[in-house]
Each structure stands twice: as C-alpha cells, then as structure tokens.
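Quarterly update from the structural biology core.
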Amino acid sequence: MSNLDISTHWNDIRRHFNRSFSTNFHVSMASLDADGTPRNTPIGSLFLDREPKGFYFEKYPSTLPGNAQDHPEICVLAVNSGLWFWLRSLFNNRFAVYPAVRLYGKLGDARPPEAQELNRLSRRMRATRLLPGNKTLWGDMNRVRDITFDRAEYIQLGLMTQDLIDNNNRPDTYHE
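Predicted structure, tokenized:
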C-alpha cells in the first residue's frame, strides 16, 4: 500500500481514472452489504470533479444503493489496462506511472442529475451515440449519487513500480 496525498495529486488521479476508463470502460466500486460482506460493482459512469469529489449515475447498480444506507464507505479501483501501456512497461521492465489507483470515500444521497452532469455523460458516450445500444443503456439516466473522497493509494507491483515508490513525493511522478 502506498498512500498518496489526495489534495496534492488530485489532478494526476483524475488523469489516471480517465486513462483507465478509456481502456476498461468501467471502474470497480467496492462496498459492504448489511451483513458486512464485501461487494464489487462495475460502474461505467463515474465522474471525478475538480476537487476530491465525484458522482456516478445510479441506473444499474442494484445492491450499492442499499449498501450505502448501512455502510456509505466505498473503495473505487481504476486499472489502466491499455495494451501499449503494458507492453511498453514490460519491455522497459518498469512502469512510467502507476498502473492502478484506489480511491476511498463516502457515498452521499441519490438525487436527480444536473444539466452539466448529463452533458458530461453525453460527451463520454459520444463515440457510440449512433448505435442502437447507446440510447438503451444511457438514455434514461435520472439519478446520480455524490461521492466525497478522503484517501488515495497507488497499487504497487514490486520492482516494476519501485522507482515510482522512491519518487512518490515528486509532483511529476504521475506523468507519462
């Protein structure tokens, strides 16, 4: 575990989440159900704001809303699964940036989306706007849930991330 100053590195974290989403089309959100059993939920509509906050559209998660009532604490994992990112890293025998980041936070209340949130979703899904499934999946997104993040950590992969760990406090550590 490598803790990361969330305030100092928030823009780097946002860049990582954007890169990860572009290779996976989702992040994994972990929550606890009523009896304390962990549950992972794929979320394809997480958006991070300019401060350590974000939101996601809550159309498809079925257990996450109920879990938020008893246990609002969550952990979001974003992994950069880009083929060239991994091939370059394996060839160079090191990662230029961390391959994965975890964010920890608390879920807020569900609410109707604001116009700018719907616009962000529309921009993200723009590449598929002419496909029939686009409207089926994202046509009626009428609830969002806010998240406030309070902690972040890099995922370490032994010697492949050792240089990054040694330079953890450098502000340019996260740039490719």
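The longest strand covers residues 100-111.
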